[in-house]
Fold each of these.
Amino acid sequence: MTFVRKSDRTALAAVAELVVAAAARGEALGLSTEITRPEYENHLEKLMIDAERGDAGLAVAQTDEGTIIGTAQWTRSPYPTRRVLAELDRVVVAPEARGAGIGTALIEAIAADARAASVEVLMLEVRGNNHAAIALYERHGFHRTGALRNVVAVGAARHDVILMSRELGRPKDTDLLGELPAGLGASLPRGVTRGVDSTGHPEWQRTERLLLCVPTTDPDVADAYFAIHGDPATNVHNPAGAMVDPDAAAPVLEVWRQHWRSEGFGYWVVRSPQDGQVLGFGGVRPVAEDEDFLNLYYRFRPSAWGKGYATELGRASLALAAKMAPGVPVVALIRPRNEPSIRVAQRLGMRLEGEVQRQLGIYLRYAIVPE
């Protein structure tokens, strides 16, 4: 597999001939069946300008004799804020060359080339009745992300456009905020303070200064969990010590997410609404086996200490507990020398009920039945 990086009239003419012939056969390329080779060569010349800037790529497959029998291209999004997104397009294999894995090689070559150009997501559009192509893309890691209904016009017929995408990789420390109301350009409709997903399950909740999110196992959340729980500064009062295995983060987060799915509440990921950074974790979890209370937990990165975030999180947690598990006590088990956590419990109106012996030592039991 090779790439055409600069204007090469011979190569571009051969690619144009291959693509124009496919369009004339009625293949779903988004092109008119009457497009001419000079017209498509003009398109390829413009593509080469983008390719020289690192914003596009044209892959070609050739026989040993140099005949071009396959091609595919990618182009980066023109929007400045979407430079991590590119589109895979015009995957064409000559009829006589099909069945030899050329389509597979073209797709993987495009993915590698786009990744090397710092593209993080590769998308494509495919006609809804092109099931063979959809199956091919799914085998190569593309997932359906949506559809535009009946927007392809072929004579009197109308077909869907299926939208598909494939993750190519993210830089470390990337915050994957998705639809969360956080960061530049975020807004909330008047009076809205919480969001749900397409199935009605809770996804996030806003307090005065915090964005409380249902956990995911996305890399940014798992990395933040390990960074906070693996920091010796956040484990001064933890007899088990700091977390040492980063791979253990995702399974914990998955358990937390399942609590939300099954019970409708649990621990949150705490983010800053200003930039989406994970500040900490906490909330109340459902009653565990052999217990009769909801556990209140909070842990923040040191840079978030001293701002009252734990108290703000605690108030939201108690309000949720009163709604989802009325009459059930909420308990915070705190090491005797952990004075900051004791002050948080006291500000929340929790009362000291005494000491309890746990597997790793003695804890103070602070409790409240929220109303």
Note: The CA atoms of residues 76 and 86 lie 4 Å apart.
Amino acid sequence: MSRWVVLVLLLWSGVAQAQSMRPFSTFRQLHGETRLTARLEYAAGTLRVGPAEGSQLYRMDLSYDDSRYLPVSDYDPQTGSVLLGLRAAGEGGVRVVSRTQLSQVADVALSPRANLSLALTLGAVDADVELGGLRVTNLSVKTGASRALIRFSQPNATRCQLAAISAGAAEVSVLGLGNSRCNEIEFEGGMGKVTLDFAGVWSTNSQVEVKMAVGELTLRLSRNAGVRIRMDKFLSSFDPEGLVRRGQAFESPDYARTERHLDLDLTAAVGGVKVEWAE
């Protein structure tokens, strides 16, 4: 075998080793905890979040590239808080250089028995976050160059004070906000395509503030709540389908007669705002 063949094989072996995935798992059983403060930081890859089964307080199963990233798992029983996720190794930050880098996968499960304050920080991530059936008291989501699907497919099991979501150059869909039971909802988008879906049972009133810089925003409204939209638009187009203008606001025809209300303050700079109605 020539030395050139040997050299090529050694180089290929080094690349294959660098791209190999390493498994990592961490979990904690419930020991009478009634609340959990969870921070999830995930740099790159695919992320799935949902309710835990059985008596687990939390669990994370991870497959990651150990040449670029390090798993994080840190629980503090004194404060009832946990930090989970995947961070870039070294000081270089997140660098997306190939599709193989994004083959990392994490599954995170959180207990539906404990009141949950959840903060997600996402880098170059394809995320599917199912919050239906959990006891979400506060929610914070910060995304970078991500594609994120956040769902309340079932009613929140407790009252939520605030859901705050901010996105950079991202595609974000938040579905079932009528099930979130959040008193306040804030969304701030930089550039991208955003869908805010307010379908759900609507057992509470919600005050919503949306700021969109550049991109396409779809508001999918529910007929289970009276809707009022106050809009400050710069170069955006706005299609108020199914709404009537009353003074400086757009309202659903039955706003005054509806028990539950969605009051939405919207600021949009460049792009389009489209209204749809959930069936």
Note: The chain has two domains: 20-114, 131-279.
